[in-house]
Amino acid sequence: MHGKHKHVPLALAAMAMLLGASSLVVPTQDARAAWFRPLQHKVNPTAQVTGIEGKVIVVDAGHGGRDSGARGVGGVIEKDITLAVAHKLARYLQQGGAIVMMTRTTDTDLATERDRAMKQRHLGDLRGRLNVVRRQRVDAFVSIHCNSAPSPDWRGAQVLYLKTNPHAKQLAAVMQETFRAELLPTKRDIQSNRTLFLLKRIEGPTVLAEIGFLSNPDEARALTTDHYQERVAFAMYQALVRYFSDPAASQPAEKDT
Ligand SMILES: [Zn+2]
User: Fold this and answer.
1) How far is the CA of 80 from the centre of ligand 1 (A)?
2) How far is the CA of 163 from the centre of ligand 1 (A)?
């Protein structure tokens, strides 16, 4: 566990430099998660209008480390795509005035050595992501994944939400709209879910965005490019801006019982 931690401050410092952040705050409880305050030197005049100023938004790059996620056409690996898009989304949000937290900033998972010893790496990884959220108020949680299917014909980005969570459904619907408008063509609609670990456990607007099929040659190719990754990140950013601009969405999430 400690072996993993010791590389992280360097990575965070590098990330801070990359983002030009002058006020990086790293919580001491969990060095693997990274907080980013809004960029101080680049005040967005529309931040007040957009409604995301000061919102705490968690950007969760799916998979990482030993867990590659899906492998797609041309050898593209899900964990690399999700991390690249997560960094881009974090940057947009930060510029918009949000307080951004990434569950991971490097190629690692969040399982502990104990999880590995107990053969619970996958569960430990998910718990690690959940623990990031449990320590403070979170206004929105966006988990980024890529899809894969046996047939190369399947395509299209799709947003998943917990069936019983109206806040999540609202954000998912807005995000699906921006995906349809901004990304490779798709007629896909939002998909309700009852079982996904993080969706079940995080209240408020919590969604899982499948940003395309790595088994589809067009989407796999696009998702490896910086340009398309930017488009995906910006579509997600726009969705969050629109969601928080809706007065109804600004109300604190009701506690599920
Ligand atoms: Zn995934």
Assistant:
1) 11
2) 19
Distance 233 CA to ligand 1 centre (A): 16
Distance, in Å, from the CA atom of 131 to the CA atom of 250, rounded to the nearest integer, reads 24
CA of 63 to the centre of ligand 1 (A): 6
Q: How far apart, in whole angstroms, are the C-alpha atoms of residue 121 and residue 127?
A: 10
Range of the domain at 116: 2-250
Protein residues within 5 Å, CB atom, of ion ligand 1: 62, 69, 145
SS3 243: helix
Find, among 190, 84, 82, 199, the residue nearest to 133 by Cα. Answer: 199
Within a domain: 255: no
Distance 26 CA to ligand 1 centre (A): 26
In whole angstroms, what is the distance from residue 40 CA to residue 166 CA? 34
Domain assignment present for 26: yes
**Distance, CA 209 to ligand 1 centroid (Å)?**
9
Q: Is 50 domain-assigned?
A: yes
How many domains, in total, are found in the chain? 1
Cα 116 to averaged position of ligand 1 atoms, centre (Å): 20
Residue 160 domain-assigned (yes or no): yes
What global pTM score does this model have? 0.81
The answer to whether 52 touches 96, Cβ cutoff 8 Å, is yes
Domain containing residue 226: CATH number: 3.40.630.40
pLDDT per residue of the chain (257 residues) written in tens, 0 to 9: 333 333 333 344 344 334 443 333 333 344 455 666 665 444 455 545 568 999 999 999 999 999 999 999 999 999 999 999 999 999 999 999 999 999 999 999 999 999 999 999 999 999 999 998 888 899 999 999 999 999 999 999 999 999 999 999 999 999 999 999 999 999 999 999 999 999 999 999 999 999 999 999 999 999 999 999 999 999 999 999 999 998 666 555 444 43
In the reported structure, the alpha carbon of residue 193 is separated from the centroid of ligand 1 by a whole-number distance in angstroms of 15
